[in-house]
Amino acid sequence: MRRIPKILALDDDQNWLSQVPLILEKDCEVTTLSTIDQGIESLKNTFYDVILLDMNFGNDPRSGIDVFRLIKAKDHSADVIVISGETRPDRLVQIMNAGITKFLPKPCTPDQVRSAINQVIQAKELRLRALNIAQSDH
């Protein structure tokens, strides 16, 4: 039986967060959080297969890059999809160089979000299968 992927959507846009569970329907277990502190606390206690991460959080001086670094320090297998309205070239380069899995510009369509998550989950499953095959050969 296939495990239901756990998704964390971390964004300060409440409207967007309310749409994420609807976009993903019943294919995933979705947690939505709106502050960096909530995200950090949740990441301490829960493994997520995919994290949908915004870059800018209103009045918080920290950014999604700070959260991304914490995610990678804790769990190298988490895949991060940045969904952001960020348009500054220097910030976009910083985001891409940080090692995120995918970047989607806001606004994006529900199909783009579903497609990105499905691609990431399929790639993760392939990596796990390959690892299991490699380990069983030894």
Characterization of this structure:
This protein has helices spanning 14-24, 36-45, 64-74, 89-98, 110-136; strands at residues 6-10, 29-33, 50-53, 79-84, 102-105. The protein has 138 residues and is α/β, with parallel strands linked by helices. Strand 3, helix 3 and strand 4 (79-84) form a beta-alpha-beta unit. The longest helix is centred in the last third of the chain and has 27 residues, at 110-136. It is globular.
| Sequence of secondary-structure elements | EHEHEHEHEH
Strand order across the largest sheet:
2-1-3-4-5
- Helix and strand content put the structural class at alpha/beta
Provide the β-strand percentage band. 15-25%
Helical percentage: 40-55%
Instruction: Write down how many β-strands occur, each being a DSSP E stretch of 2 or more residues.
Output: 5
Unreliable stretches:
none
Provide a count of the helices.
5
Largest sheet: 5 strands, parallel
Mean pLDDT: 88
What's the N-to-C terminus distance?
26 Å
Report Rg: 15 Å
Task: Specify the overall morphology.
Answer: globular
